[in-house]
Amino acid sequence: MDTHETTLEFEYDQPSRARIVAESVAREIGEIDDERSQTTIEHEGAVVIVRIEAADVIALRAAVNTWLSLLGVAEQTAAIGAAAVEGYRSH
User: Which residues of the chain are under the pLDDT cut of 50?
Assistant: First the structure.
């Protein structure tokens, strides 16, 4: 069977932000992966790497959309948390 795959890389300003984002979304791997697509997530320094392998292009597109959405939420949440910490420190 032919498989389809893609690798997405996201670079952040700080390695700590990459770690937070990667750890936040990695929790979903067991919940989202199925017989049609599997994903791995890792971070190397300030880069988050998402590798998706799927049985067909429809499953690949669905997985990419799902992971992009999850990463977007994780990024927004990390930014809000960082802003709150910075605001607390400045008082």
Answer: none
